[in-house]
Design brief:
3 domains, five-stranded antiparallel beta sheet, about 40% helix, alpha+beta, 19 helices, RepS protein, four-stranded antiparallel beta sheet, single chain, about 15% strand, Arc Repressor Mutant, subunit A, PriCT_1
């Protein structure tokens, strides 16, 4: 998207939701001579450098006019509005008031993506992850260490002191779940930063992406968060193992799990199974016990803190992703025995360590490279990956015959069987991951687009090619026509935009 076309004032207005005065209370250069009272408004805080931010050396801003006067002067700000702001020193340099208890309204949720040394990360990777999750940011800013994504609300969420500030707790759950959802795809997500504090401010030199129509209804976010949130909202602990409520004991409730948990010395050394293997085995036990991925992460994170030599958080996340990849069904008994043996933890008998029936233990699934046949879900992944390479920003659809598609989808030089291709396409269509139009007759074939490519094109297509694109894409898919008609029309109301999101499955995780 052409940054020259960005309207910084539009971004500020979309973010602030009228939480500040439009004009300065005193010494305004813009306020009309006759102006209606603006009512009770709040304050935000601006900082000219990260060092100043750390030292709380900033400026209290109570009007949009003051913000405009400082365009591109600040590096950080508070995008959510506080009830008041003040200074603690005579020189009016140390600011006070940007605390959680003083929040007046929440305007946006933020995710901080911190790129590790040597890690590849760009805003397109964030957008691709967002499309996979159906959670597309309104704004993405480039920062010295990575990116910040803003999910701006359609209307401000006002904070009340009732029920011990329950409105803040509701917003926190949403913020946590947004971060966890993205962390399952991108390990660079910072899960620990302040939910509603200081963030990078939009400037003319740091806007990577902005789509003002993509704002979020708070009630819909609450519904999404409740579906994403594990059954218990509190951080679960597995260090106190509870008896099973089912007839068959779960792997996570086996005695060997308790034995591993009580050893803080596991670090790993040459010729021995160490921390990574122990964590992976425990993660598989969580997976086979049908624990949510977030529960598994909390479990391993808690265990990691208790180790004498803990692992990096990114490594813990990688282990959880691998365990929940679907390639394995549960912990392997041989690995468990080897782990216990390596660390002199085998004082109990097998009957004491393993209480489940032998049929409940699973061997590791063979890797795809070791099998003669691929599973349909693997072919589906191959199809999506191929289509992604063929779908471009201004041309999300691909025109080809079924024979050409079959020849293009290969694994180890073997093309996908026709029966598997048909089944994979039908499943992908049912799941809403691809759109297909069949052209009959001589010279016919398929017109195919992935849902990700279609929506990506809709939200990032350049103004100069928009009209030609709209006319072309409407001939293929009614879903694209509906998106274009609503999201690109200036007269589209928030209700209509919400309807489009619902109809295109933007709110429901796939």
């Amino acid at each position: 998207m052409n940054l020259l076309d960005q309207d910084l004032n539009l971004i500020y207005a979309t973010l602030l939701k009228g939480g500040l005065r439009q004009y300065k209370y005193k010494n305004s250069k813009l306020r009309p001579f006759i102006q209606q009272p603006e009512g009770e408004k709040g304050a935000i805080f601006g900082f000219r450098s990260k060092e100043n931010m750390t030292a709380s050396r900033g400026i209290v801003l109570t009007s949009e006019e003051a913000l405009w006067e400082n365009e591109d002067c600040f590096t950080h700000w508070t995008p959510n509005v506080y009830s008041y702001g003040t200074y603690t020193d005579p020189n009016r340099t140390i600011v006070k008031g940007h605390s959680e208890e003083n929040l007046k309204q929440i305007n946006a949720f933020l995710i901080d993506f911190d790129r590790s040394p040597g890690e590849k990360l760009d805003y397109q990777m964030i957008l691709d992850a967002a499309l996979d999750l159906d959670l597309i940011p309104t704004l993405i800013l480039k920062t010295p260490g990575g990116y910040q994504a803003y999910f701006i609300l359609e209307s401000a969420w006002y904070i009340s002191s009732k029920n011990n500030y329950a409105s803040i707790e509701v917003a926190k759950r949403i913020s946590e779940n947004l971060r966890r959802a993205f962390a399952e795809i991108l390990p660079s997500v910072d899960l620990g930063c302040n939910h509603f504090g200081i963030a990078r401010i939009p400037r003319t030199d740091n806007i990577a992406y902005f789509y003002h129509a993509m704002t979020y209804d708070m009630q819909q976010l609450i519904s999404w968060s409740m579906k994403y949130q594990p059954a218990a909202t509190k951080k679960k602990t597995f260090l106190q193992l509870l008896p099973s409520v089912t007839e068959e004991v779960q792997q996570i409730q086996e005695k060997w799990v308790d034995v591993l948990l009580k050893n803080p010395e596991i670090i790993g050394r040459k010729g021995h199974l160490g921390r990574n293997n122990a964590f992976f085995t425990l993660a598989l036990a969580c997976y086979s016990s049908q624990k949510e991925r977030s529960e598994c992460y909390d479990f391993l994170d808690e265990l990691n803190e208790k180790l004498n030599r803990s692992m990096k958080d990114t490594e813990v996340k990688r282990i959880v992703r691998s365990a929940y990849s679907g390639r394995y069904r549960g912990a392997n008994k041989a690995y468990v025995l080897e782990l216990l043996s390596n660390w002199s933890l085998e004082s109990l008998s097998e009957d004491q360590l393993f209480t489940q029936k032998r049929t409940a233990w699973h061997k590791f699934k063979k890797d795809r490279s070791e099998r003669k046949r691929s599973h349909v879900h693997e072919w589906k992944t191959d199809i999506l990956e191929y289509l992604e390479t063929q779908c471009y920003r201004y041309r999300p659809e691909i025109d080809l015959t079924k024979a050409e598609l079959q020849a293009a989808i290969k694994y180890q030089d073997k093309s996908i069987p026709k029966r598997s291709l048909d089944k994979a396409i039908n499943e992908l269509k049912t799941e809403g991951k691809i759109f297909v139009k069949v052209r009959s007759g001589r010279g016919g074939g398929l017109v195919v687009a992935t849902r990700k490519a279609l929506i990506r094109t809709v939200i990032v297509v350049n103004q100069t090619v928009k009209k030609a694109y709209k006319n072309a894409i409407r001939t293929f898919f009614k879903e694209a026509d509906m998106l274009l008609a609503k999201l690109f029309e200036p007269s589209a109301t928030s209700k209509e935009i919400g309807l489009v999101r619902k109809q295109t499955n933007l709110w429901e995780p796939g």
